């Protein structure tokens, strides 16, 4: 149980955008809820961010929406299920953020990536989804996306927002110490350390995301921001020296 049941099924967010709550995974010994985002592009194809566990029922639901054409691995942690989706949709193109391909190879994950993600949206979704590689960390290089039609910002681990009511008691303590507990979720404190010499670069990226004007922000872990997205984004990064005030 993750607290986000039903799992492995499409949940509408806005027109042409859905999310999928997946089963929990273990990371640092803690059960992390998982979440994918699906966007139907203008050509009818599906763009899938951070694919979660694929079941037959979910595969049928997706098939009713359109063909899966793009699989997005947005950072060095979120790629484990991409291979399973490639088996189901062999024609789909897989896109990797910096560091993903090397890590998958070291872990022996049998995934093949066709393209690298960068700061500019490729022709496949240009004009529909904005994107950027967040700068400043020597470890965590995450690709973030903004679906312009629905004004939805899609993040992965830059903000985590675990709801204490959905956690065992010991994880409530851990998430509070880590600075990632709802309703005041933010970047995990250990991740912040990887940006410590380049907070200005991270702040510039936050400003660009705010300038996109998101109404909602989908997060991979915990409660996502259903409204007031830009304000919630600024609040989540108020620990940055450049964002204070």
TrEMBL record:
It comes from the Bacteria. InterPro entries: DUF4336 (IPR025638), RibonucZ/Hydroxyglut_hydro (IPR036866). PANTHER family: METALLO-BETA-LACTAMASE DOMAIN-CONTAINING PROTEIN, YALI0C07656P. This is DUF4336 domain-containing protein. It comes from Thalassobius vesicularis.
């Amino acid at each position: 149980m993750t607290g986000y049941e039903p799992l492995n099924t499409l949940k509408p967010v806005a027109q042409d955008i859905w999310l999928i709550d997946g089963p929990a995974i273990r990371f640092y010994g803690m059960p992390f809820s998982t979440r994918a985002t699906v966007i139907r592009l203008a050509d009818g194809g599906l763009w899938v961010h951070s694919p979660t566990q694929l079941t037959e029922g979910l595969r049928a639901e997706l098939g009713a929406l359109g063909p899966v054409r793009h699989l997005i691995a947005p950072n060095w942690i979120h790629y484990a299920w991409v291979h399973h989706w490639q088996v189901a949709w062999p024609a789909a193109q897989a896109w990797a953020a910096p560091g993903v391909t090397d890590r998958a190879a070291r872990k022996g994950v049998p995934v093949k990536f066709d393209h690298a993600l960068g700061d500019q949206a490729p022709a496949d979704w240009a004009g529909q989804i904005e994107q950027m590689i967040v700068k400043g960390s020597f470890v965590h290089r995450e690709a973030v996306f903004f679906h312009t039609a629905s004004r939805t910002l899609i993040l992965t681990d830059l903000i985590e927002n675990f709801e204490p009511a959905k956690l065992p008691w010991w994880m409530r303590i851990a998430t509070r110490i880590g600075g990632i507990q709802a309703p005041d979720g933010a970047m995990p404190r250990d991740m912040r350390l990887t940006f410590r010499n380049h907070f200005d670069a991270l702040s510039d990226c936050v400003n660009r995301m705010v300038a996109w004007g998101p109404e909602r922000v989908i997060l991979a872990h915990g409660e996502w921001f259903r409204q007031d997205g830009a304000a919630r984004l600024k609040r989540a990064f108020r620990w940055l020296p450049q964002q204070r005030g």
